[in-house]
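--- STAGE predict ---
source: upstream dedup step, 1 unique chain passed
mode: sequence only
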Amino acid sequence: MPNNKIYVGEASYGRTFRMAQDGCWGPMCDFTGTRLQSDANPGKCTKTPGYLGYAEIMEIIRLGGNQIQVFHDHSSNTDVLLYKGLSGYSYPTTTSTLEISHTLMPACQGTMSAI
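--- STAGE serialize ---
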């Protein structure tokens, strides 16, 4: 099958992390847990530490009030949500998905990579 006929899809979940230091979110920050087990709180629907469904992330944003920070990190093309200073979330939004699409589409002819 020609690669311009394949569309892998978009991620509808986010990765979650428990940060060792309050407010730290960059690549030099330490996170608790191991590579196999996340210390992040599980979602009420996903019930899996380390992953939240997109709807769960949107609910945190909607209900989080002044306990959240949401921003796009252009250097890594990652959308980031910090919740209560200790939980970090990386998830796809229109901004990151469009940037990935415009970057990959000419070379990959329709494929998309999950963040």
